[in-house]
Structure formats: structure tokens, C-alpha cells
Specification:
heterodimer; A: 413 residues; alpha/beta; FAD/NAD(P)-binding domain; D-Amino Acid Oxidase, Chain A, domain 2; eight-stranded mixed sheet; 11 helices; 18 strands; 29% helix; globular; B: 74 residues; alpha+beta; three-stranded antiparallel sheet; 18% helix; flat; binds flavin-adenine dinucleotide
């Protein structure tokens, strides 16, 4: 065995071959240009190439593959939302996630360990009952559970009644899961590149050329590229990129921070979240405790970490799990999130004919990656808006038809 | 603010939802909660630097006109 390992280490076949070939020079023309090489951009490219026969596609990424919010999220996947539009959309995504490793023949480390959201007040219980009923009606596993069941699901949760906000009940979502976020982006990128899509990293879209209300080309730091259609999937840079196409968006950018401890033995099975104390915690398969919470208090395009947030996340996590008091923090980080007024995304057509929007993913977009790939690719290929994403079109704001997705807010993702 | 009588609902939507979301220097209203004192601040939304804070009378003079044109005729 050690000899075999040594041989492998020195052999010319090591390191194993690249997941995909790095793209060469930019072509003069692509049928579809995708701005943003995060999970969403790669998923859209993958679906265009695999299911719609569109291979002359480029993903233009200003930095590196999956280095934006795809690299920064806490990987929570769930579908226990509150609106019908939201539940239908996210539950399709969870279904796709469940089969994604097979779809790619590449392990995304999907783990369905469930999600428990805690209620510390009567009004929260009322809200949870409402959510559970909506969820069940639409085929999502979601139920209101009492303190006894909570102690069985999470034996080491602090159930004391002597805390500031004692736990009164919970919303148990058996479909809740996590997956390795990087692997999702890599799997889509590999599958897309295997089918002729070009991934161009370090390629920033600096300007967008529009004639007669149609995009004709994008200008990048590496030259000008003509294109038949453009999809923007740039999350935190949504307003900035859309502005280049003269499209105003109802988005404000706020940092969202998270942090992680050193690895410990497996002790916590589900994902536990508390909108009341503004924190959520889960233990990864590596053993680290991932701790996240609400957004920063004011708008900012910056990914610095703050002591304020570290203190508030720590104290909230300790309230739920006092045994973490000896845990050591390994990292703290942030991503710039593109928040919409109704906590729902902005997907679909834009005022520019062949320019498509995949934006407004805020603090909840990782779980939507597979379904965005499917629906946005269908839209670009067929020019028809899939029913699943119709409620999320930009025009809704002009008609005051927001999709008020209270199930996406604060620490409950 | 759009004219509350003459504006279309589209104008209102723009006013209510569509803001600049600038990456760069912005001027904003802030409130010192302890004293309920409202002031203005210039802030860089990329570097997180507060460039300066100042009292509202540097930019605003007099009171806002909040009379309802409908009630004037009465
Ligand atoms: C701390 C944190 C925790 C989160 N937790 C969760 C969670 O648990 N569950 C969940 O569902 N969601 C979560 N989210 C939200 C989720 O991460 C995002 O909504 C999602 O990753 C968005 O994916 P994306 O591919 O659209 O964007 P990104 O991954 O950000 O990709 C956009 C890419 O566009 C590139 N780009 C920008 N401008 C340009 C340009 N001009 N030209 C070319 N390329 C450009 C960027 O470099 C970037 O790589 C979290 C976010 C954060 C920050």
C-alpha cells in the first residue's frame, strides 16, 4: 500500500487529469455568453449544452470558477418556504439536488440530515403551523414538532427554560440537506466544458453593447465578443452589471457573514436554525461547526469580517449549544449578497430583448442552483418563460406583485 | 418624491423599489439612536469608510411642503 501510494505520487499520471480543459483565446462570436462563473452560470451553461444542443457558449468569469458567493455560502438546501411560488420552485431544486451526483457522475456530497427551525414565541409557532400546512399541501415534508420531539432530534440542544428565549416548538423539515458547494460549481463546469462550453476565468465583462434594444456584444478586459444572447448570473454584482445594459434592478447589496470551527467528532445531525436568536448551526461531514446568521446592518460591497458579527453569532450559538464554548474558530468570512425587497429572486426576461436575468439571490441562492440551470436554459433556448419562474420576473415590481417570501428571511435559510 | 397625484404607478414603483445601489461614495441618512438625532453621512460602500458626517442644514433649508392639494380648496 505505501509503495503503491509512492508509485502513484511519482508517476506521470499524477496529478490526476484536470476536471476540464482551461479555455484558450476568446472566440469572436458565441451563441450565448454567460456573465458569471458561479454555480448558477455554470448550471445554465450545462443545461444549454446537455439538453438544448447549444454548445457555442462561453462563461465569462472575472475572477476564478465558483469564487463568489458559491464559495462562501453555508450550503443549506431546503424547500420549506412560505409562498406557493417559492415552495414549488425550491422543492424542484431539492429533487434535482438529490440526483445531482448521478447526473454528473461526480460526488457533490449531498447529505439529507434534515433541518430544524426553532420557535421561541407564540407568534413564531403560528407562523410555523402556517408554513407546515403550505408545505405539506405542496408535497414537502414539513411539520410542527413539540419539545419532546426536538430533544429526540437534537439531544444536545439547550432545552432549558431558564434562558432568555426558551425553545417552545420547532418546524421539522426532513428534506433539508447540505451539499459541497464547490463540487456543485465544479460538477456543472466539468459537464458543460465536456460538451463544448468554454469557461474563461480572469475575464471581466466591462461593457455591454446594445443596438435596437438587443445585445450585440460584450466588451471584456480580454477583448470584444459578439453574442446572440447574454445571461447575467453575477449575484453580488447584479446591479453593477445590469447597469451596463441600462437595466435598473430593485436590489441592495449587504454583506452576509459566516464562520466555522475546528473539526470535532460527529455530535450534531440536523441543521438547526433560530430566527429569534439570529443564528443557524450545522456540523459538516468533516466535523466542523458552520455558524451563520442574519445580514450586516447596512449596505456594502465588501467581504470583510467584523468582530460585531463574530460576537453576536458566537453568543447566539452558545445559547443553543453551550458545549461549543470550548470550540475554536477556524475562519470567518463574508459574501456580498444581492437582496431584493421581497426576498425572492429576479429571473427571466429583461427590458433588453436577448438579455436574461438571474439575479436577486441574496442569502438563499445556493439551494436554487440546479433549478436555475434548468429553467434559465429553457428560457434562453426556447424564448418561453417556464411557469416555475414566471412569478419571479422583474416586471412584478412595476405591478406591485411582489412574492413576499417570509420563509427566506434572516437566519431561517 | 414623485408627484402623488400626477405620477403613474410605474413612477411610484421606480421610486419605491428601484434605487441606485452604488458601489462607491454615497450620501445617506443616519440616526443616532440614543438621542434620535438624524444626520447625513458620506460613506464609501466599497471600502466601508465613513468620509464625513454633517448636519442636515448643509443640504436642506426650510420645511418640506407636505400640504395636500385636495384639502387646499376646502
Ligand atoms: C455567507 C453566506 C452564506 C450563504 N448561505 C446560503 C445557504 O446556506 N443556502 C443558500 O441557498 N444560499 C446561501 N447563500 C447565498 C448563495 O451563496 C448565493 O445566492 C449563490 O451562491 C449565488 O450563486 P451565483 O452563481 O449566482 O453567484 P456567485 O457564486 O457569486 O457567482 C457570480 C460570479 O460572477 C462573477 N462576476 C461578477 N461581476 C462580473 C463581471 N463583470 N464579469 C464577469 N464575471 C463577473 C463573480 O466573480 C462571481 O464568481 C449564502 C451566501 C453567503 C454570502
Amino acid at each position: 500500500m505505501p509503495l503503491g501510494l509512492l508509485k502513484y505520487g511519482f508517476s506521470s499520471k499524477y496529478p490526476a487529469k484536470h476536471h476540464f480543459t482551461p479555455a484558450k483565446d476568446l472566440k469572436k462570436h458565441y451563441d450565448v455568453v454567460i456573465i458569471g462563473g458561479g454555480g448558477h452560470g455554470c448550471a445554465i451553461a450545462y443545461n444549454l449544452a446537455k439538453y438544448h444542443g447549444l454548445h457555442n457558449v462561453a462563461i465569462l468569469e472575472k475572477s476564478y470558477l465558483g469564487g463568489g458567493n458559491t464559495a462562501r455560502n453555508t450550503a443549506v438546501i431546503r424547500s420549506n418556504y412560505l409562498t406557493e411560488a417559492g415552495v414549488n420552485f425550491y422543492s424542484e431544486s431539492v429533487k434535482l439536488y438529490n440526483n445531482l451526483s448521478n447526473e454528473f457522475n461526480y460526488n457533490i456530497m449531498m447529505e439529507s440530515r434534515g433541518q430544524l427551525t426553532l420557535a421561541h414565541s407564540d407568534s413564531a409557532i403560528r407562523g410555523f403551523r402556517w408554513r407546515a400546512e403550505v408545505n405539506k399541501h405542496l408535497g414537502v415534508r414539513s411539520e410542527l414538532v413539540d419539545r419532546q420531539t426536538i430533544s429526540e432530534l437534537v439531544p444536545n440542544l439547550n432545552m432549558s427554560e431558564d434562558t432568555r428565549f426558551p425553545i417552545m416548538a420547532g418546524l421539522w423539515h426532513a428534506d433539508g440537506a447540505t451539499a459541497r458547494h464547490d463540487a456543485v460549481a465544479w460538477g456543472y463546469a466539468k459537464g458543460a466544458c465536456d460538451r463544448g462550453v468554454e469557461l474563461h476565468q480572469l475575464t471581466e465583462v466591462e461593457d455591454i453593447e446594445i443596438t435596437n434594444n438587443r445585445v450585440t456584444a460584450v466588451k471584456t478586459n480580454r477583448g470584444r465578443v459578439e453574442c446572440g444572447a447574454v445571461v447575467q448570473a453575477v449575484a453580488g454584482a447584479s446591479s453593477i452589471v445590469a447597469k451596463k445594459a441600462k437595466i435598473p434592478l430593485p436590489i441592495h447589496c449587504y454583506p452576509l457573514q459566516a464562520m466555522v470551527t475546528q473539526p470535532y467528532k460527529p455530535i450534531l445531525t440536523p441543521h438547526v436554525s433560530s430566527p429569534q436568536v439570529h443564528v443557524y448551526v450545522h456540523q459538516t461531514s468533516r466535523g466542523e461547526f458552520v455558524i451563520g446568521g442574519g445580514s450586516d446592518p447596512y449596505p456594502l460591497y465588501n467581504t470583510r469580517a467584523t468582530l460585531d458579527q463574530r460576537e453576536s453569532l458566537s453568543s447566539a450559538a452558545l445559547e443553543l449549544f453551550p458545549f461549543l464554548s470550548q470550540a475554536r474558530l477556524l475562519r470567518q468570512w463574508a459574501g456580498t449578497t444581492d437582496m431584493t425587497p421581497d426576498y425572492s429572486p429576479i429571473m427571466g426576461l429583461s427590458p433588453v430583448e436577448n438579455y436574461y436575468l438571474d439575479a436577486g439571490w441574496g442569502t438563499w441562492g445556493f439551494k436554487a442552483t440546479p433549478i436555475c440551470g434548468v429553467t434559465m436554459a429553457e428560457l434562453v433556448a426556447t424564448q418561453k418563460v417556464p411557469e416555475l419562474i414566471r412569478p419571479f420576473e422583474l416586471e412584478r415590481f412595476y405591478r406591485f406583485e411582489q412574492v413576499n417570501e417570509a420563509g427566506a428571511t434572516a437566519a431561517s435559510h | 418624491m414623485p408627484d402623488h397625484i400626477a405620477s403613474s404607478s410605474r413612477d411610484w414603483a421606480e421610486y419605491v423599489f428601484f434605487h441606485d445601489n452604488n458601489a462607491g461614495i454615497v450620501t445617506e441618512w443616519w440616526c443616532h439612536i440614543a438621542s434620535s438625532f438624524w444626520f447625513l453621512a458620506e460613506r464609501n460602500t466599497v471600502t466601508d469608510e465613513i468620509i464625513r458626517t454633517f448636519k442636515t442644514d448643509e443640504l436642506f433649508h426650510g420645511r418640506a411642503d407636505v400640504t395636500d392639494p385636495k384639502s387646499e380648496s376646502k
